[in-house]
Q: What sequence folds into this?
């Protein structure tokens, strides 16, 4: 083996995206191409944040969320610095300073710092946008295992939990609590939950479906302050609904990229750490950023696992193939034809739980009577919990919303992502949810996504099954499908059943 000095790779952050990057770098570490250190403020190795609500509700043990084995990494030679915070990066000397007083040197640095919860500007809360929130007792944002444990203690004691925010994460948290037998209260500003994604009629049906699932929904709320005693949270004060009493407040008002460390060392930041199409954030090709903290080639962070994991796979291969500049050597130009993925393949949003099946994609705000190129078709049966809205241009699907029509929604996802034309008679799509109809009218191709969280395709799952995987967990280990929110488990189980010999 060559005796030349090995490169020093350093990763700041140890969430799911960083874990994927580290997995991809292990072959290079084994071949002696570089050393690898990872610094994380959390004391836990990477875990699945998507399932934190289930941990809080008591439906999933915290131990099931682990995504990588720290002992295996340590044995492979990865330097793990857990429970330590980076206070400063000195790019001129290529040093990272830790709160313990130690320093770590690097030749190439990767920011995988993720995002922090947005804390609303309410009296009684510290809402500093570029610092970790210092929330009072009983107020939390569900981003860490500690948050999940704190929320679980409230639920186990029979406490009433208010969820502030009508986005997908707040709704999923409320549904997880309701499914476990608790009575959460979803409090949000808009006329209906998911107001930025669904139209007015769809929002009304969504609110009704949430109430049927056991979630109390309070819409049109202008929150002003949190009320608390020395022992903790007691109520949310509002302009128009008085004080809404509760034993805990779960804040779910979005996230903001952690960029202050990068900004402090002179990197450009906006909606995230600004990088080029190669995830490079500096002019020397030494500093990179990916995942929820990165604004890649002008694209805002997607906030989803799939694009983050795609970036991690790309960057691992890139770092294995491209060496850092030697001391005094100018940075080499990078091939513009090898761009990293900036975002996921589509803006499809899915929600599932306790009899609620919703999928929405594209823009569905156009009305059926509006003039213009768009053709809008609507079907509604509120008593049956069903709603379908289709928006097309030149017969091509550009947006849709399906509630209570799971098979129709699944087919429309394929049509939306493929840019397919719809049948002239839109009402034929409703027959898909007739139990007498065949399982699918349009067969999924090998390249179609099966797992929305990870981006795993039907072909990857089929290949894993063909190679001997017999359980959902084994399929997940092979291609990550089913390791996110779990919404695709039913499809994976169906593919496993088909593979079992009669």
A:
């Amino acid at each position: 083996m060559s005796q030349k000095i090995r490169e020093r790779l350093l990763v700041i952050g140890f969430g799911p995206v960083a874990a994927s990057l580290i997995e991809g770098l292990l072959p290079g570490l084994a071949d002696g191409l570089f050393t690898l250190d990872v610094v994380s403020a959390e004391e836990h190795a990477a875990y699945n944040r998507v399932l934190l609500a289930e941990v809080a509700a008591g439906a999933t043990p915290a131990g099931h969320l682990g995504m990588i084995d720290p002992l295996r990494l340590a044995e492979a030679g990865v330097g793990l610095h857990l429970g330590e915070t980076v206070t400063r990066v000195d790019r001129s000397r290529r040093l990272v300073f830790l709160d313990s007083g130690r320093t770590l040197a690097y030749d190439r640095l990767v920011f995988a710092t993720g995002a922090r919860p947005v804390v609303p500007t309410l009296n009684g809360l510290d809402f500093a946008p570029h610092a970790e929130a210092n929330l009072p007792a009983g107020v939390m944002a569900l981003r860490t295992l500690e948050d999940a444990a704190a929320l679980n203690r409230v639920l186990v004691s029979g406490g009433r939990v208010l969820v502030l925010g009508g986005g997908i994460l707040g709704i999923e948290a409320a549904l997880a609590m309701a499914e476990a037998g608790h009575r959460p209260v979803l409090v949000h500003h808009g006329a209906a939950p998911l107001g930025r994604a669904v139209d007015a009629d769809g929002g009304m049906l969504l609110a009704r479906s949430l109430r049927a699932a056991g979630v109390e929904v309070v819409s049109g709320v202008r929150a002003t302050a949190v009320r608390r005693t020395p022992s903790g949270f007691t109520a949310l004060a509002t302009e128009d609904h008085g004080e809404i009493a509760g034993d805990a407040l779960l804040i779910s008002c979005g996230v903001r990229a952690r960029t202050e460390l990068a900004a402090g060392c002179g990197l450009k930041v906006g909606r995230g750490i600004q990088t080029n199409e190669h995830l490079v954030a500096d002019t020397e090709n030494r500093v990179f950023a990916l995942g929820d903290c990165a604004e890649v080639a002008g694209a805002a962070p997607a906030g989803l696992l799939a694009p983050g994991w795609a970036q991690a796979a790309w960057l691992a291969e890139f770092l294995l193939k491209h060496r850092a500049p030697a001391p005094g050597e100018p940075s080499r130009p990078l091939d513009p034809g090898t761009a990293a993925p900036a975002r996921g393949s589509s803006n499809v949003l899915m929600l599932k739980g306790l009899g609620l099946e919703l999928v929405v994609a594209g823009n569905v705000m156009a009305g059926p009577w509006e003039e213009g190129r768009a053709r809008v078709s609507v079907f509604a049966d509120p008593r049956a919990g069903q709603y379908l809205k289709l928006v097309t241009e030149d017969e091509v699907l550009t947006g849709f919303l399906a509630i209570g029509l799971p098979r129709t929604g699944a087919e429309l996802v394929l049509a939306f992502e493929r840019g397919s034309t719809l049948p002239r008679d839109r009402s034929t799509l409703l027959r898909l949810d007739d139990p007498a109809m065949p399982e699918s009218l349009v067969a999924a191709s090998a390249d179609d996504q099966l797992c929305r969280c990870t981006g795993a395709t039907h072909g990857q799952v089929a290949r894993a099954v063909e190679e001997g995987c017999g359980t959902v967990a084994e399929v997940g280990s092979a291609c990550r499908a089913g390791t996110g929110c779990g919404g695709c488990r039913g499809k994976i189980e169906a593919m496993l059943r088909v593979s079992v010999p009669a």
Remarks:
- DSSP finds twelve helices and 25 strands in the chain.
